[in-house]
Amino acid sequence: MNYRRISHAAMSGVALASLALVMSSVAANAETYHYVTARNPDSPVIKALMDVVAEFKETHPDFDITLENIAGRPAYLQKIKILATSGELPEIFDADAEPYYEDIVEAGLTANIGEIFDEIGITDKFIPFALDYERFDDGSLWLIPWEANVEYFYYHKDMFEKAGVQPPATLDEFLEVCTTLGETGVTPISVAGKEGWPMYRYLSMPSWRMMGNEFLDKLKVGEISMNSEAGLADARFFQDLGANCFQEGFASADYTTALNMFLSSQSAIYYVGTWELHSLLDENKELKDDIGYFKMPIIDENDATSPDDFYAHSGLGTAIRADAATDEMKEFLAFLADRFGTISHHEYGGLPSLKIEVTDEMPQIYKDVLADMEAIGEYARVWDVKLDAATVDTLFRQSQLLGLGEITPEQFAEEIDRSVQQYLSSR
Amino acid sequence: MRKNQLLGTPSWAGWLFVAPALLMFTAVVMVPIVWSSYLSLGVWNGLGKWRFNAGANYLSMLSDTVFRHALLNSLFFSLVGSLIQLIVGMAMAVSLISIARFRNIVRVPYFLPAVISSVAISQIFVQLLSADPEGFINGSLRSIGLGEHTQPFLSNTSLTLTIVTLVDAYKFCAIYMAIFYSALVSLDQDVLAAAEIDGANRLQQLFLIRLPLIWATIAASVVLVVSGTLRGFDIPFVMTGGGPGTSSELVSTYMYKTLFSQSNFGYGSAIAIFLVVECLLIVAIIRKAFSATEKTG
Amino acid sequence: MLSRHKLTAWLPTVLVAIFLVIQIFPIVWVISASLQTPEALARGPSNRLIPDTLYFGNYVRAFETSPLLQYLLNSTIIAVLTIGLTILLAAPAAYAIEKLRFNGSQIVLNYFLLGLMIPVFVALLPIFQSLGFLGIRNSYWAVVLPQVGFQLPVAIYLYASFFRSIPNELLEAASIDGAGVFRTFWSVAVPLSINATITIVVYNFIFIWNEFVFANTFLTSDALKTLPVGLNDFVSDMGRRDYGATYAAIVVSVLPTVALYLFLNRRIIDSMTAGAVRG
After folding, report:
1. What's the CA gap between A320 and A113, in Å, rounded?
2. pTM for this entry
3. Which chain C residue has its CA at the smallest distance from A5's CA?
4. Are residues A185 and A278 in the same domain?
5. Separation in Å, CA of A103 to nearest CA in chain B
6. Which of B43, B47, B128, B160 is the mutation pick for testing A, counting most A CBs within 10 A?
7. Residue ranges making up the domain that contains A257
8. B4-19: buried (b, 16+ CB within 10 Å) or exposed (e) per residue?
9. What number is the ipTM of this complex?
10. Of A242, A414, B52, C91, which sits with the fewest C-beta atoms within 10 Å of its C-beta?
């Protein structure tokens, strides 16, 4: 076979193939809802949701939800923004109650979940903070919450014992514990500095204890400076952590690396929400023997927030496109409110946004977590959801530099303030 | 001016041959860029109305410190990356051509970094460079007695840019190896044989005879590598996300964040247009330089 | 003198050996890492080049979590269509620019070269909308057509340099024999350009095989996903990655290309010897 023939055959073949492959676009069924999600198909939320869909289909055979999973937050955001900009948002998609989603709501693109929940009478079935977390500042609700998470510091008991330290009650003690742990040769804390949010949680703790959510609420609208007492307390605390507590190279560590360090006993403390609880349990669904946990430490008894108040939220919420909030969808949501909580918890070990009954056979750790949720008065708002995206980008860069000791707390404060001002003036 | 065209070809035939490619290219590549230049002149979050703001986006680039860092980083990334890819690519090609046996077998592994996806290469290097827990590179440094050089490479703001530049160059240098290799192999053996008889040694042969003969290929490669590195994205984006701080932010990664995480389509498009113009200018200068050397040489 | 001669004789071999080690290093590392247990991988990045365990569970998990063979098939179909179409469009265009001189052919070439400067992200939104308009979103074409557009400049650039080097007499001889423009192109220029074609295929394949952005944006059904997009199947909601399965998937995605290159190797070398990119 000579080249000439190969080349001709190849070219003709491709030409034919190009012509022969006829494209078909599947016509959308009116009762099939397309759900573009950032959640993994194996996550408790999606598994439980699809189980509920399957049950609902027994009485509503035409109803269906098709899943499209886009893993990795940047890839998901890129996709959803392309869809939104083209005016082709899917019937169901995930979002946080952040400024960009506010724009989507203002454009009238999604359904008012709060009104729907009231209309079909399921609002009371949800854990209040789980609903509140998805609300905008004006109190309106445009997202369905799925989870109820609280965030703890988990620690290795044997490492604490070896260093002769106790779980800290105050933030000062917390820094001392870190230093003492470091002296025994262990890495005190592993943190995923590449992800952003774990850094912001640490960063925000002093100001939240001093002023509660007032600090973030005011920072966001430029009424308080990061260069204030509370703001600088945050920056100094974070810089101390970066210098004495975080693992070497924390700024480039991803979620998996930081978590694995803790799970394989290479770091003593790890801060995470209860969505990751399953990784910390033994075969009896109890917390592993070696692992303990404590809540966000306080500063002192003059704090604005109580020791029982800390970070609690419902994670990524889900929006329904305005025209997809049909009667059938409402019927489904009512059905969901009855079934989702139970299935999510009992089948997949999740902590759902719906109230679930505390039973005797429930593992102790779940009972404790649910009790903690019950005790929460005010919960801490999440910075990367409340602030605008450009400020979050600045926060991300500057937190890394602050933690690495490359800028001073004052420089950090100046950058954050400038970014907030820029956003406010562009509005 | 060009002596190279065929006689007696009707002009419409040329257009007919070029039309399909022209249409496809215009629709896919040129229409979007025109659309972007329009977007770049206003404010748009992708949802509401586009609002004209008369070049304010371009003005804000001047005062944007992140953009300034990204631009300097990008120039470094492109200059150093291009040089490494061309020099290493050439060294690979020349050494390959100089060995008598196993050439064919060696070529396949040479290509391995190029066929592994950028995302995968980045993840592999992130693991290799890890500090705590210790990765391969820090571990090796320690075991050969260079323990004092172990460090968190990707958290060191003075190293990250160099690292992403090296990894990017590493991934793509085999491509230029292939291009140079095929050009070198196709050189007229008689000319080389004559040179050998003249007593030119290997190095002289290389620099005085072989390289000038493939000068046009080198020029073409320079254009490809520079335009490629100026738009470099995947490896810095996956390895460091542009950080820590702005230490490894490139114009392209910053543009991506502005467009898709900040939904600032006006400013993002302005950065994109800047990138296109920057690239055009640099490539025009390179082509000018090469055509000048071609005339004098 | 003698030792110096020996040195220059050995230098290329030594260099080739060094390059070889450097080039195969990451794949050796990732193969070794893919054979370690999840427990070992959780303790930290693999520091071994020769695996101490031969644990195949990562591969089992990779295939269970993710339809890798389907992705492999999708990637292959997309690569074949994209490369085929690129060549089908680029070869005649470059031929016309270099050999069928027409008014403005040099401008056309420069116009195509503009494409080398344009970042793909600016095109996402308009292309997405046009694909919707054409009704071909969520088909292989949704990834193939945009990629062809972006690969055309390089292909035309390389083809043009090649055609420039073919003497006109060769082509004119054919037309004197009575062959028309199309016949001359098809039966003289195309067979001559097989070498340039292979270089272009090799060059473009690397970019097409690894393409992520278009595939992630324009394809919505799992059944059409490509390998680079599929690597994200091993990431959970909050960003936890199954590294063992990821490494296994990387190995699985690289092996077919290596096999292909090994298979084509003979061909590529033979043809490249005859000449490829000339100025």
Report:
1. 8
2. 0.91
3. C191
4. yes
5. 7
6. B47
7. 150-312+381-426
8. eebeebeeebbbbbbe
9. 0.89
10. B52
Burial class (CB in 10 A: 0-12, 13-18, 19+), B3: exposed
Which fold is adopted by the domain C58-273?
Answer: MetI-like fold (1.10.3720)
Interface probe with C: pick from B127, B184, B217, most Cβ of C within 10 Å: B127
Report yes or no: C173 and C191 within 8 Å, Cβ to Cβ: no
Claim to verify: residue A163 and residue A255 sit in the same structural domain: yes
Residue the block writes with tokens 């305005």: A322
> What is the domain partition of chain B in residue ranges?
67-267+278-296
Q: Is residue A294 part of a domain?
A: yes
Question: Closest approach of chain C CAs to the CA of A376, in angstroms?
Answer: 24
Q: Name the amino acid, one letter, at B214.
A: I
Query: What CATH class does B67-267+278-296 carry?
Result: mainly alpha
pLDDT band at A26 (very low <50, low <70, confident <90, very high): very low
Q: Does A23 touch chain C (CB under 8 A)?
A: yes
Closest partner CB to B4 (pick from C15, C164, C273) = C164
| Same domain assignment for residues A88 and A196 | no
Say whether both A108 and A64 belong to one domain: yes
- Residue A412's pLDDT is 98
Q: pLDDT in tens for each of the 297 residues of chain B?
A: 344 456 556 778 888 999 999 999 999 899 888 988 999 999 998 888 899 998 899 999 999 999 999 999 999 999 999 999 999 999 999 998 888 777 777 888 888 898 888 889 999 999 999 998 899 999 999 999 888 899 999 999 999 999 999 999 999 998 899 888 888 887 777 777 777 777 777 777 788 888 888 888 898 899 889 989 998 998 999 999 998 999 999 999 999 999 888 889 999 999 999 999 999 999 899 989 888 876 554
Cα A143 to the center of its chain, rounded Å: 14
Task: Assess if residue A410 is contained within a domain.
Answer: yes
Domain containing residue A70: CATH number = 3.40.190.10
Give the contacts of B66 (CB within 8 A, at least 6 positions apart).
Answer: A397, B246, B249, B254
Do A230 and A116 have their domain in common?
A: no
Contacts with B214 from chain C: Cβ below 8 Å: 278-279
Are A305 and A343 found together in one domain? no
Dist. CA A186–CA A264, nearest whole Å? 12
DSSP secondary structure letters along A176-222: HHHHHHHHTTSEEE---TTTSHHHHHHHHHHHHHHHTTHHHHHHHTT
Question: Does residue A111 fall inside a structural domain?
Answer: yes
Residue A12 lies in a domain: no
What is the percent of chain B where pLDDT is above 90?
50
Question: Structurally, how many domains does chain A consist of?
Answer: 2
Cα dihedral sign, B200-B201-B204-B205: positive
> Which runs of E-coded beta strand occur in A29-147?
32-37, 64-69, 92-95
